[in-house]
Structure formats: structure tokens, C-alpha cells
């Protein structure tokens, strides 16, 4: 079955990320000065330590397989700054004294709990109508191609390794075993297996259900069982891809899908409200970075 929730969630997170980055740009400027040693930012006089960023980077890398990079650090830095702004707002509203916060077992958990409670009480997401659900369902169906694909991928961090792994795959070594051995992608534990995805062919930018354009083009050109002739370079990684299966899209009827689509549109509305609320909070913060 085509996974509508993957498409909706990806769109919502992309919108939230854009809003969060915009909000950081709108934050009140601090007087130009040197940051304290081992700090990544100062928010209203409170230091956000570099050690906190280092810990989050290690955690994200361990969970996702993505290597440490400047892009990752910048994105996580923005998140930590936003988190500190919200933490201060929650403390000002005395959310740090709530029983749920006091019962949390660690300092990090207490911060997370008070921010969650604060946002829950202050966010006002738009309601989702039945017409919006139907329109979203129809748009998702219209965005599909004649086929859906299920690829396997192996992502590595340098071109030399990518070519070596590709040679092993083409020599007949099991692709799933190579993925478990070499891949830095989160799918390595599943032998590189990705969810089913469908998009129109010829492939066009912005119409690939979130799959990077070069990878989508490669997948669409492969026969079932085929392996990419060359590694696909995507940012900081090189990707070897194999097409495991291809079939006509498995589209659930509207009556079966509408509740899932509605729930995820509601989640998107909540993410949008969270981004807007965070932007407003950051406008009034003095941030040095």
C-alpha cells in the first residue's frame, strides 16, 4: 500500500524546518561581542554550551547513520537555540514547577517535558475540514506515477569506498549483506530496504515524493534486480542503489485512507503552529551566536 503518511510527514517537517530557520533570522540581534569559551550561543544571557551540541550530534549520528558535518551542526545548533528560548518561556510561566516536570528522571527530560506542556497549552492549530482531507487525498493520488518502486540503498561517505562496494555488488555479493556491512543510512539494519515510493516518469524536480532527484532518476531507469551503474553522489554521501521490486501503485480507497490523511494533516497544522509560535518567541529574544 502506498504510504500517504510518509509524504505528508516529509512535507510538514520541511515546512517546520523552514519556519524555524526563518525565526532564527528574525531574532533580536545581540550586541557584537565574543562568545564565551566553549559556547555556541547566548540566549538572553544564558549560555548554550558546545558540549550540548556535541552530544546531540553524536546522538543523531548514532540514530541515523549520518556523518558529523557542518550542515548537521548548523541545523542542530538552530534547534538548540530555539529549545533554549522555549525553555526560558516555560520557566517564566512556571511550567518547571508542574508535577509532570518534577517527576522526570533527568535534567534533559525535565526540560523536554516543560517545553511540551508549555507548547500544548499555547499552540492553536487550525482545524482540518473534510474538504481539506478529500483534496489532500486526491492530490496525493494525482502525484503518483504508473509504477511504484521498492529500492535498496547503500550510502557511504567517500567515493573510493562506494566504487569498491559497487564492484562487490556487481560481482554477485548479496546486496543486503553489503548494506549491513558498509552503509551509514538508517536502513542498513534492514539490508538497505527502503519503503515503496511512486512518482511520475520522466522524473521532475519537486515531484519525487522527497527522493533526491538524481536518486529518483536512477531508480526509475533500473530494471527489477538491477544495480546502479555508478554511485550516485548526494551531498556528503555516495549511494549505490538496487531496484528490488516494481508494481502498479497500491492505492487505498478514500474511505480507508481518510482517517490517516486527516490525522496527518492535523499533525502538519500543529507543526505549522509550533513553528509560528517559536518564531514569535525568538523575535523577542536576544541571541548572540
UniProtKB/TrEMBL annotation:
Signal peptide: 1-27
Documented EC number(s): 5.2.1.8
Molecular function GO terms recorded: peptidyl-prolyl cis-trans isomerase activity
UniProt similarity note: Belongs to the PpiC/parvulin rotamase family.
Pfam families, per the entry: Rotamase_2 (PF13145)
Organism the protein comes from: Paraburkholderia bannensis
Keywords associated with the record: Isomerase, Rotamase, Signal
InterPro entries, per the entry: PPIase_dom_sf, PPIase_PpiC, PrsA_foldase, Trigger_fact/SurA_dom_sf
Chemical reaction(s) catalysed: [protein]-peptidylproline (omega=180) = [protein]-peptidylproline (omega=0)
PpiC domain segment(s): 146-245
Source organism phylogeny: Bacteria, Pseudomonadati, Pseudomonadota, Betaproteobacteria, Burkholderiales
The protein's name in its UniProt record: peptidylprolyl isomerase
Amino acid at each position: 500500500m502506498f504510504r500517504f503518511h510518509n509524504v505528508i510527514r516529509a512535507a510538514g517537517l520541511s515546512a517546520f524546518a523552514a519556519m524555524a530557520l526563518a525565526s532564527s533570522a528574525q531574532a533580536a540581534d545581540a550586541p557584537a561581542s565574543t562568545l564565551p569559551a566553549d559556547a555556541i550561543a547566548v540566549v538572553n544571557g544564558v549560555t548554550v554550551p558546545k558540549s550540548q551540541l556535541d552530544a546531540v550530534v553524536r546522538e543523531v549520528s548514532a540514530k541515523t547513520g549520518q556523518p558529523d558535518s557542518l550542515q548537521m551542526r548548523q541545523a542542530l545548533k538552530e534547534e538548540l537555540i530555539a529549545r533554549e528560548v522555549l525553555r526560558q518561556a516555560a520557566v517564566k510561566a512556571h511550567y518547571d514547577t508542574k508535577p509532570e516536570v518534577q517527576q522526570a528522571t533527568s535534567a534533559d527530560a525535565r526540560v523536554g517535558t516543560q517545553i511540551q506542556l508549555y507548547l500544548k497549552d499555547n499552540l492553536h492549530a487550525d482545524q482540518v475540514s473534510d474538504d481539506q482531507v478529500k483534496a489532500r487525498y486526491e492530490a496525493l493520488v494525482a502525484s503518483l506515477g504508473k509504477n511504484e518502486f521498492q529500492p535498496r540503498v547503500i550510502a557511504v561517505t567517500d567515493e573510493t569506498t562506494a566504487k569498491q562496494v559497487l564492484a562487490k555488488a556487481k560481482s554477485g555479493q548479496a546486496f543486503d549483506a553489503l548494506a549491513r556491512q558498509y552503509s551509514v543510512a538508517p536502513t542498513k539494519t534492514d539490508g538497505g530496504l527502503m519503503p515503496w515510493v511512486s512518482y511520475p516518469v520522466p522524473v521532475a524536480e519537486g515531484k519525487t515524493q522527497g527522493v533526491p532527484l538524481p536518486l529518483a532518476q536512477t531508480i526509475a531507469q533500473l530494471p527489477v534486480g538491477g544495480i546502479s551503474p555508478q554511485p550516485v553522489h548526494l551531498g556528503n554521501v555516495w549511494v549505490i542503489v538496487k531496484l528490488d521490486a516494481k508494481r502498479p501503485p497500491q492505492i487505498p480507497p478514500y474511505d480507508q485512507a481518510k482517517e490517516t490523511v486527516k490525522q496527518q494533516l492535523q499533525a502538519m497544522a500543529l507543526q505549522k503552529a509550533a513553528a509560528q509560535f517559536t518564531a514569535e518567541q525568538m523575535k523577542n529574544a536576544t541571541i548572540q551566536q
